Amino acid sequence: MEYVIVDGRILERATAKVDIEDRGYQFGDGVYEVIRVYNGKMFTGKEHLNRLVESAEKIRMQLPYSPEQLEEKMEELIAKNELETGTVYMQFTRGTSPRNHVFPGADIAPTFVAYTRKVPRPEESMEKGVRAILDEDIRWLRCDIKSLNLLGNLLSKQKAAEAGCFEAILHRGEKVTEGSHSNISIIKDGVILTHPADNFILNGITRQKVLEICRNEQIPLEERAFTLDELSAADEVFSSGTTVEVMPVVEVDGKPVGNGEPGAVTRKLQALFKAEIERRCGKL
Ligand code: PDD
């Protein structure tokens, strides 16, 4: 039996329903999070739940639960579904009310949905590396909000998938921003470069953890937007995100990155990231 949460209550998946006038369904008017689960434990759960609250505030939505209450609910759902390795997805929308661009009144409560999914660590891809394409970033100017509106991301990811690639690396003109579903960093002469956490990217929790690791290990890093030319001259490129951890990118638009193999710095970050997971969630 699979269980989900609808409006705070754990239900059987088959009985869960959302109204057709839910604002998430009609407008994409809501926010979400995806949290990794290893050995039945959430990895960086608090960080994700704090970002969920921040995303909600940025769209002027008040969540009816505190991060602590949400953490408890997610733990309950993970236990109920006996999830070992996977993800927990949760979203809040601005509730159900007759379709109108104006926000509904304070009497309309947000709709809260959550479910779990078994997802293995992508070990083979992490070992061999993945391919990416380049695509113009056509998204809105508040990519820092983890909003349900993902059309720009989907169009780019679909293009990548049709080209047999894992990710689309997005750029606004000459400047690289992030990936369609992950953050992108490059390494040149031992220095890590990644876009600063502003309105043009989602400040990935994985990105933040990787940067923290770099600071602790005295691996040089610069948070600044790099150009397409810098990307194509990079020694190493990697993508980072909840489901993909630290993923080497070995080819961009058909051209090998460095020697076409995952590089030494990316390998080191992968190992340090895995150690961080094991420190928090136990042996992988
Ligand atoms: N995506 N940038 C974008 C556009 C993303 O969609 C994601 C994550 C990230 C990485 O963020 P984090 O490290 O916090 O997962 C960056 C999630 C997993 C998704 O939409 O499924």
UniProtKB/TrEMBL annotation:
List, in alphabetical order, the GO biological process terms annotated in this UniProt record.
amino acid biosynthetic process; carboxylic acid biosynthetic process; D-amino acid metabolic process
TM stretches of this protein: none
Gene Ontology molecular function terms on file: D-alanine-2-oxoglutarate aminotransferase activity; pyridoxal phosphate binding
Which cellular component terms (GO) are annotated to the entry?
cytosol
Task: Determine the domain of life of the protein's source.
Answer: Bacteria
- Catalytic function, reaction form: D-alanine + 2-oxoglutarate = D-glutamate + pyruvate
Keywords for the protein's UniProt record, in alphabetical order: Aminotransferase, Pyridoxal phosphate, Transferase
Matching entries from CDD domains are given as: D-AAT_like
Broadest EC class assigned to this enzyme: transferase
The EC number on file is 2.6.1.21
Cofactors needed by this protein, per the record, are: pyridoxal 5'-phosphate
Record's keyword annotation contains Transferase: yes
Oligomeric and partner information: Homodimer.
Q: Which family does it belong to?
A: Belongs to the class-IV pyridoxal-phosphate-dependent aminotransferase family.
The name this protein goes by in its record:
D-alanine aminotransferase
Query: What does the record give as the organism's lineage?
Result: Bacteria, Bacillati, Bacillota, Bacilli, Bacillales
